[in-house]
Amino acid sequence: MNQPALPRSMNLRRSVLSVPAINPRALEKTHQLDCDAVIFDLEDSVAPEKKAETRENLAAFFRSKPLDGKERIIRINGLGTSWGRADMELVSALEPDAVLLPKVNEPQDIMAIGDLLADADAPDEVRIWAMIETPRGILNAAAIAEAGRTAGSRLDCFVVGLNDLRKETGVLPQPGRQYLVPWLMQVILAVRAYGLCAIDSVFNDFKNIDAFDAECAEARAMGFDGKMLIHPAQIEPANRYFGPDASAIAEAEAIIKAFADPATDGLNVINADGRMIERLHLVQAETLVHKARLIAERLKAKGPTAN
Ligand SMILES: CC(C)(COP(=O)(O)OP(=O)(O)OC[C@H]1O[C@@H](n2cnc3c(N)ncnc32)[C@H](O)[C@@H]1OP(=O)(O)O)[C@@H](O)C(=O)NCCC(=O)NCCSC(=O)C[C@H](O)C(=O)O
Ligand SMILES: [Mg+2]
């Protein structure tokens, strides 16, 4: 079977904001924020005694007003916890764009969620996202991603969780994430091999925007599609770093134009002002222009203050 060349989803996922679903004020704020996706968290940001109240909050929020133009993801508690099953019942009732499973260790974890969604007759549009944040999750990243190729799999995206991974491994937080980069790249390889998306971990020090910028630049260079965020102040820089800039758009448009010339029919490789361009660059250029178009449409819909 051919490997998919592009992520299965072409959605914008530059900025993926986590919102503790226990907090109605923060939930309400998501309507006015310019993030691409929102993770409604039922897991680590919610105290054990508040889990039931949180599910009620989230149900009321989903039923109050649609969250226009943003992907909606619900992060559940693990199925091995006493809250996981009730969280999945809520997912089946609310039908978000995706359910995010924490602490995924092996392919069976994904299959179990897939089975629950199928048993609940959840539409195919309800996808599965996986937190890769345990030593076993990193070691099994490729096998977990491969589970996304099985018939009917809904697996769509990996989100790295470095808080848990640091806790489990003892790696210290350091600028540049020197000792974590090999594991992060393992995640990138796994998602690219199986056509999934990759979202980089949260950055805890949300007042330190310079350091956040540096981490976004690094994550973009590594190949991540976007970043999981914890605070609204992180949205604008994430959108900037993970969105194509004007020169990248111009270059992509030039590649598309070059291959649209009938003179390139039957050619896989052309000379563009002294630089070799292959048809594989055309696929990348088309993806980039597609994303740029989505961003432009968003800006147009929102007016001059959106990023
Ligand atoms: C970290 C916070 C607790 C800080 O909150 P707060 O003290 O309220 O910050 P501010 O006063 O600066 O907030 C300014 C306004 O912005 C709103 N706000 C803040 N955060 C959010 C948010 N995430 N979504 C929506 N709105 C937000 C405040 O309500 C203020 O609004 P207003 O009152 O109108 O001025 C807080 O930011 C927070 O709770 N963040 C998210 C925490 C979270 O989701 N944690 C789970 C994800 S982390 C993770 O997954 C780790 C991973 O698993 C791993 O292992 O690595
Ligand atoms: Mg975690």
UniProtKB/TrEMBL annotation:
UniProt-listed GO biological process terms: regulation of cobalamin metabolic process
Residues the record lists as binding substrate: R75, E133
Q: What is its EC number?
A: 4.1.3.34
The top EC class, named as a word, is lyase
For this UniProt record, give its keywords in alphabetical order, as a comma-separated list.
Answer: Lyase, Magnesium, Metal-binding
Q: Which residues bind Mg(2+)?
A: E133, D164
Q: Which domain of life is it from?
A: Bacteria
Q: Where is the HpcH/HpaI aldolase/citrate lyase domain?
A: 14-232
Cofactors demanded by this protein: Mg(2+)
What Gene3D superfamilies does the database record attribute to this sequence? Phosphoenolpyruvate-binding domains
Q: Name one GO molecular function term.
A: (S)-citramalyl-CoA lyase activity
List the Pfam families.
Answer: HpcH_HpaI
Show the SUPFAM superfamilies listed in the entry: Phosphoenolpyruvate/pyruvate domain
What InterPro entries would the database entry show? Aldolase/citrate-lyase_domain, Citramalyl-CoA_lyase, Citrate_lyase_beta/mcl1/mcl2, Pyrv/PenolPyrv_kinase-like_dom, Pyrv_kinase-like_dom_sf
Q: So what family is this one in?
A: Belongs to the HpcH/HpaI aldolase family.
PANTHER family in the record, alphabetically?
Answer: CITRAMALYL-COA LYASE, MITOCHONDRIAL, CITRATE LYASE SUBUNIT BETA-RELATED
Kindly provide the name given to this protein in its UniProt entry: Citrate lyase subunit beta/citryl-CoA lyase
What lineage is this protein's organism placed in? Answer: Bacteria, Pseudomonadati, Pseudomonadota, Alphaproteobacteria, Hyphomicrobiales
